[in-house]
Amino acid sequence: MASRIAPFSSQHLEAACRVLADTAQGLTGTQIGRLLQEIQVADPSPDMTKWKRLFNALAEAQNRHQVGNHLIMFINRAMNPVSYASNSGAFAWRRDELNVVLAFSGFYVRNDGKVAHADKANTLDEARARAGRLRAALESRAVHAEVLNYCRAELMEENYFHAVFEATKGVAERIRQLSGLGGDGADLVNKAFGGQQPVLVLRTLSTESEKSEQKGFVNLLVGLFGAVRNPLAHAAKTQWPMSEQDALDILTLASLIHRKLDGVSRFAVSM
Asked: Which of 1, 12, 166, 214 has the lowest tally of Cβ within 10 angstroms?
């Protein structure tokens, strides 16, 4: 993108820097310094908080040259897919969040990591939708982070069939992590939550209501695997169509299950 780009507002520039230098998912301080050097932008405050350091550097360059090209140049280098060969999740997260911010300025990050022009978004809902309608709808429902962790790439492609498949696999993986058990599907669920002395419990199982809830949760999990995960595992995508609405409902169910899993504990056997 060699043409002159109008300067970004300070709010837009700050929002982009906060994504790029996010504490958990962003670039490291070393990476920021190297990329600034590559685009020949001075690094006036290397000891500051990462996002402020990046903001100060890009804002100074923008004010001096009266163009917004430096932010785009930085993103193009920061989002080079080669750098994410072993961490595709980081690429997906940064691309998603940058696309929300950049939408207000009329840009977006393509699959190849390069910034391209787009129509400007005027609302946050519109900007979120640029990252995928299904993902935007899930975010509006405040779905559990674990749902997105397991199917982020599929959501970006609006691949509903595989997004649901990966999300249901993610439920099984989380049960294995919490319980220390192996196995899959109904067998895993019954070992982890079933019987008189389950490995994991939602509550203390000291009342009939708590025992009923535990049994109902087992049935819910078995139903998810039996009605959704198992058919998808054995059917071709063309033979098992997955609509956007079906995907939204199933992924919302997976979100509910993850919230329940947040509160499980090991079963205490009374002596």
From this structure: 1
Supply angle C-alpha 206, 209, 215, rounded to 5: 95
Q: What is the pLDDT of residues 160-169, one digit of tens each?
A: 788 888 899 9
Contacts of 249 by beta carbon, 8 Å cutoff, 6+ apart: none
Contact 26, 50 (CB under 8 A): yes
Given a contact cutoff of 8 angstroms between Cβ atoms, the answer to whether 40 and 65 are in contact is no
Q: What is the pLDDT of residues 217-228, one digit of tens each?
A: 999 999 999 988
Average pLDDT, the chain: 89
Q: Report d(CA 164, CA 147) in Å as an integer.
A: 9
Whole-prediction pTM: 0.54
Residue ranges in the chain whose pLDDT is less than 50: 1, 271
Instruction: Transcribe 155-184 into DSSP letters.
Output: HHTT-HHHHHHHHHHHHHHHHHHHH-----
Q: Give the dihedral sign, CA 253/259/265/266.
A: positive
What does the pLDDT read at residue 268?
Answer: 73
What span, in angstroms and rounded, lies between the C-alpha atoms of 27 and 94?
Answer: 10
What φ, ψ does residue 201 adopt, rounded to 5°?
-135, 150
Measured distance CA(123)–CA(104) in Å, rounded: 8
Distance CA 227, CA 250 (A): 10
Give the Cα separation of 125 and 137 in Å (integer): 9
Strands, E, within 49-169: which ranges?
A: 107-109, 115-117
